């Protein structure tokens, strides 16, 4: 990472079960120095959840005081509202990795953060997470070859945290497989902000389609207690198509699969030197 350590800060919301935020903080504490990484601060809306896991001097009580810690990159693995409320301020001072890219389904938020990155010369990083082949999707877009993109996510009903009418639909999926949603990803993100970050990352990888053009399909399957499935289909001119299917081991009821934790860490390790733009990592 060069001679100067990259100082990342984490905005995390620790759940009762093991979370991506906990995993990343532990990785930094254990292996950060060998990658030139140093932890600047950790913030949680419930500070009591940091006790015993994060030293007191690294805990940030008030998120608006983040400038005092002089972080080089701020990593959000908390909730979409963080990017919506604070992302512009973060990008004025540091690079920003958005672990909840469903926040960007809000058109105004996406435009605001893109412009903040451009003006400040900082990078808005979008981690691939469970999105397999994100860079390939981006290359298809860059070459004008991407005509359609569909992302299907299949999970056990207990793994969903859904709002609106989807919360009612998933209750009827405890006995048989059920399609909960099919349509533009923009309409799905506000209803499933913690479950479809993979779809949101795909939208950012394919800005020619974006949140209105990329199709999302959300499926509840009671026969998947131990893993999540992500299927991606991209199509282009002349009959071109490519399909992938990813099985991600996950504890029963977990929102995020285990392999996604490792993917977040890998994403962080490449977050340097891409200033002034949006970068899928």
Short description:
With 281 residues, the protein is an alpha/beta fold.
Radius of gyration: 18 Å
First-last Cα distance? 15 Å
Shape: globular
- Find the count of extended strands (DSSP E, 2+ residues): 11
Architecture blueprint of SSEs:
Blueprint: E1 8-12, H1 20-31, E2 42-43, E3 73-77, H2 80-93, E4 95-98, H3 107-120, E5 124-126, H4 134-142, E6 148-155, H5 164-171, E7 178-184, H6 185-188, H7 197-205, H8 210-213, E8 215-220, E9 227-235, E10 241-249, H9 258-268, E11 278-280
Parallel strand pairs: 1-2, 1-3, 3-4, 4-5, 5-11, 6-8
Antiparallel strand pairs: 6-9, 7-8, 9-10
Helix pairs in contact: 1-9, 2-3
Task: Please provide a written account of the structure.
This protein has 281 residues and is an alpha/beta fold. 30% of the residues lie in helices and 22% in strands. It is built from nine helices and eleven strands. A six-stranded parallel sheet has the order 2-1-3-4-5-11, with helices on both faces. Strands 7-8-6-9-10 form a five-stranded mixed sheet. β3, α2 and β4 form a beta-alpha-beta unit. The two termini are 15 Å apart.
